[in-house]
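quick one, 188 residues, struct below
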Amino acid sequence: MAAIDRGDLPADLRIVLRRHPTDNPGRWDRFEGVAAVAFDDPGAVGAQAVRPGQVDLGRDQIVGLCSSLAHTDVHVSVSSTMTLDGAFFDKPQLGPAYDRRGQARHRRRARDLYAREHFLPIVASGGLELSASPEELVGQVRSGLARPERLQAERRTMLEALCTATDGRAIERVADEVGRFVQEHATA
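---
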C-alpha cells in the first residue's frame, strides 16, 4: 500500500489477497477495510483431515481461483505452484524472495523457498521473476502492468516443461481414457 501511496504504483491498483485454504485467516485481518485490498477467502477445507499444505478444493473454490487468475493483471505468489496456474492465463509471474523484517536465517529461508526440488524447474524456466527486496517487487509489478507480454515465451517454456498438455483439454483426454477402459473391461 505504501508504494501506491507514494505513487510508485497506479492509484487505482487493486490487490486481491487470496490466502491458502489451510492458512490461518486471522493473519490477514490487518487488511480489512484497506481500500486497495480485496480479500478473496477460498474458505476452509472443511473438517477433513489434511496435512499442512495439502488441500482438496471443492469445485466452487477452483472456479473462484481460476476466475481471480483470469482477471488479474500481475500474479504475485510466494513459492507456490500457483505460478503454473497464473502462467496458464499468461500473466506476469512474480515471486517475492525476501524477508526484510527477519534475521539472516529468515532472509535465507525466504530465498530457499524457491530452491526446493519441485520448484526448481519453475525458476529455471525464466518465466517467474524473483525479487530480492520490496523495491524490486514494486518495479516488477510496474513492469508487468506496462508490458505484460514480457517473458511470455518463458512462461510458455515453463508450462511445456512442467505440464504434459497445455491445450485445456486434459479432462476430455481423461474421460476418453476412462471410457476406453470401461469398454475394454466391461463384463457381459
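The helical segments are 2-6, 59-70, 82-88, 104-112, 120-124, 134-146, 152-162, 170-185.
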